[in-house]
Design goal:
The structure is a single chain. The protein is an alpha+beta fold. A four-stranded antiparallel sheet has the order 4-5-6-7, with helices on one face. Strands 1-3-2 form a three-stranded antiparallel sheet, with helices on one face.
Length: 157
Amino acid sequence: MCGICGIVSNDISIGSRNNIVHSMSVDMQHRGPDYQNNWSDSCVTFGHVRLSVIDLSSNGHQPMKSFNDRYILSFNGEIYNYKKIQQQLINLGVFFKGGSDSEVLINAWAYWGEEVVNKLNGIFAFSVWDRKVKKLYLVRDRFGVKPLFYHYNNGRL
């Protein structure tokens, strides 16, 4: 099981956000001992600790960018029908570097937007950052098998 964390704030510097998110990732390292990384933009920092299950290569590392570099994903879970969705995307001309359900998910989001949630069969919690419009999406599976916790206070998430 992976671990995801992050901060969205306009009043915390990138360096401070990276330090805070790194500390959060270290606290979750037991959830994802295979890889840990952060990603930052103007007002958001994602942290991810990875337990490699489907694609053991570095192609499955997160936070992960979409094929068009617009969206950033941090994902915990499993998409059971990812091969079917991947084939639909290949038929639409999307190229894949690896074989992870994470890569399928972020590229499906880039192609269909938030409507992709209706296509997903699985257990998941994930965050997607839209770099173009500076919008964060937080999504979890319908039954909350993979929980998603957040705290919002004084303009900070």
